[in-house]
């Protein structure tokens, strides 16, 4: 099987759920996207009509750096996924290692660019790689590595990529404040925590040399004008960020309680998604689908099912009723 034939399995495939089960008014819990998003407000028409000036991109970078508590060089991009597509080009292809199982786009992108990819089950096994990838917190099981461990690991790899797409609700564990050191790149997603995945906004943080190279690869307009304006507003709103993090942590425990009542065992997760051990993941997914609730299962596990957190009260009621059937 060639690199281009490798399966790239994702959540968010609500169209597949509709095609299979029919119905409408689906609740998509197959992703880890906050379902109570940041309130947008109106946007000036000019934002849609002109190319974003470099001064606006620089303003977004400053606001994001403050929100993430970093002095590292920072590049706004069209989602963390855009960074994942560019990162293999930062170094000549060699040996890459990825802590797995995890988000499979990292391996797919590296292989497409000629890297030899080895998936390992222990973080310590990443040492010695030309490029190493850790998703932290990990998707789907929520495994966390400490900043001190990661900085030590960076000294044993050519380049360490730490994907912090689900880190916003646990900022004390972020590597962002230390991302300016050579040999480390940190990725952040905007759309998940802020519930605005359609904005397509994310960031790469790292040493000035690496970020400058990524910027050259990304081109002159790596993000749209609307994304810049929305990102600036949301990332500057400290009160919303803190209140949302507190709510998500409380809601994660609430979801764990519902799952436990259904006979599912918590495997792990983050403040934006939970992973459960079920007797039969396919049967559990189909059971929820009968209530037009979409969940995530995995090709490498017959028992794991991942759920994002419901948003409005009506969604919690539907999920609770579906789990009680």
CATH fold node name of the largest domain: Aspartate Aminotransferase, domain 2
- Number of self-contained structural domains: 2
Number of helices, counting only DSSP H or I runs of 4 residues or more = 11
Q: How many individual β-strands?
A: 13
User: Taking Cα atoms only, what radius of gyration do you get, to the nearest Å?
Assistant: 20 Å
The biggest beta sheet reads:
7 strands, mixed
Q: What structural category arises from helix and sheet content?
A: alpha/beta
User: CATH homologous superfamily of the largest domain?
Assistant: Type I PLP-dependent aspartate aminotransferase-like (Major domain)
Give me the CATH architecture of the largest domain, please. 3-Layer(aba) Sandwich
Distance between the termini: 42 Å
Shape: globular
Give the low-confidence spans.
1-6
What does this structure look like?
This protein is α/β, with parallel strands linked by helices. Helices cover 36% and strands 18% of the residues. It is built from eleven helices and 13 strands. Strands 2-8-7-6-5-3-4 form a seven-stranded mixed sheet, sandwiched between helices. Helix 5 (105-112) links the parallel strand 3 (95-99) and strand 4. Helix 4 (80-86) runs parallel beside helix 5 (105-112). The radius of gyration is 20 Å and the shape is globular. The chain starts with 13 loop residues before the first helix and ends with a helix.
């Amino acid at each position: 099987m060639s690199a281009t034939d490798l399966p790239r399995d994702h959540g968010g495939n609500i169209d597949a759920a509709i095609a299979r089960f029919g119905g409408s008014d689906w609740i998509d819990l197959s992703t880890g996207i906050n379902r109570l998003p940041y309130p947008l407000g109106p946007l000036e028409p000019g934002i849609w009509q002109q190319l974003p000036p470099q001064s606006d991109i620089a303003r977004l970078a400053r606001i994001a750096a403050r929100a993430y508590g970093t002095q590292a060089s920072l590049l706004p991009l069209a989602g963390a996924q855009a960074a994942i597509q560019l990162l293999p080009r930062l170094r000549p292809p060699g040996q890459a290692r990825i802590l797995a199982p995890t988000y499979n786009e990292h391996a797919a992108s590296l292989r497409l660019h000629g890297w030899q990819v080895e998936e390992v089950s222990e973080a310590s096994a990443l040492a010695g790689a030309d490029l190493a990838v850790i998703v932290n917190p990990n998707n789907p099981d929520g495994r966390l590595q400490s900043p001190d461990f990661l900085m030590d690991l960076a000294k044993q790899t050519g380049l360490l990529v730490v994907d912090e797409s689900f880190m916003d609700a646990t900022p004390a564990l972020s590597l962002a404040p230390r991302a300016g050191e050579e040999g480390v790149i940190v990725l952040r997603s905007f759309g998940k925590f802020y519930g605005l995945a359609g904005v397509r906004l994310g960031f790469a943080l790292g040493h000035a040399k690496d970020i400058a190279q990524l910027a050259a690869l990304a081109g002159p307009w790596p993000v749209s004008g609307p994304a810049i304006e929305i990102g600036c507003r949301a990332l500057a709103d400290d009160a919303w960020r803190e209140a949302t993090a507190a709510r998500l942590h409380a809601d994660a425990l609430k979801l764990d309680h519902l799952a436990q009542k259904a006979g599912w065992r918590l495997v792990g997760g983050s403040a934006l998604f939970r992973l459960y051990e079920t007797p039969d993941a396919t049967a559990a997914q189909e059971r929820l689908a009968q209530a037009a609730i979409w969940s995530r299962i995995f090709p490498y596990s017959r028992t794991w099912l991942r759920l994002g957190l419901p948003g409005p009260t009506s969604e919690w009621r539907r999920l609770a009723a579906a789990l009680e059937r």
